[in-house]
Specification:
This protein is of the alpha+beta class. It is built from five helices and seven strands. The protein has a seven-stranded mixed sheet with strand order 1-2-3-4-5-7-6, with helices on both faces. β4, α3 and β5 form a beta-alpha-beta unit.
Length: about 170
């Protein structure tokens, strides 16, 4: 199966919430998020306008996406999702690697994200791609604040982590 990758366009935002919801329950039937908490199309459109979001297609179908936002010298990945029909084919890793290239070429020093540390397709997935868990959160107040917001939104603090990938 071949797939292609490109920068996200405004019209891509319409398909992203459904992929996010479907991807949330794809593995082992354990939802990583409450489907009611997924981002709205307008949220995705706002992130796409910042210029660092990507989509993957298989033929005409959107297979996955990654949305990111600049914060000073870091590019933060807000969401990465691959539709269940296209998972385990390298698309997610391809999206993250493309974001790394974009970030490096744009002058960012690192990529950051928050995720579940204990689910195989989250923390360990990103670790295989070069991300490390941020354990000194006092040195990274933006990520500490994001984790606090997630806990306020009902996500379990003991299962969440912030991760960073420094770019060469």
């Amino acid at each position: 199966m071949s797939w292609s990758l490109r920068l996200a366009r405004a019209e891509d935002a319409a398909a992203m919430p459904a992929i996010e919801r479907a991807a949330a329950v794809a593995f082992a039937g354990e939802p990583t998020i409450d489907p009611a908490r997924t981002r709205a199309e307008a949220d995705y459109a706002r992130l796409i306008r910042r210029g660092h979001s990507l989509v993957a297609h298989v033929g005409e179908a959107m297979a996955g996406f990654l949305v990111a936002q600049p914060f000073s010298r870091e590019l933060h990945i807000w969401e990465m999702g691959v539709a269940p029909a296209y998972q385990r084919r390298g698309i997610g890793a391809g999206l993250v690697r493309a974001a790394m290239i974009d970030a490096r070429n744009t002058g960012f020093k690192a990529l950051t994200l928050t995720t579940f540390r204990d689910l195989a397709w989250n923390g360990p997935f990103y670790a295989r791609l070069g991300f490390e868990e941020v354990t000194a959160l006092d040195a990274h107040p933006r990520l500490a604040g994001e984790l606090a917001n997630e806990v306020d939104d009902g996500l379990p603090a003991d299962r969440r982590c912030a991760m960073i990938c420094f770019l060469d």
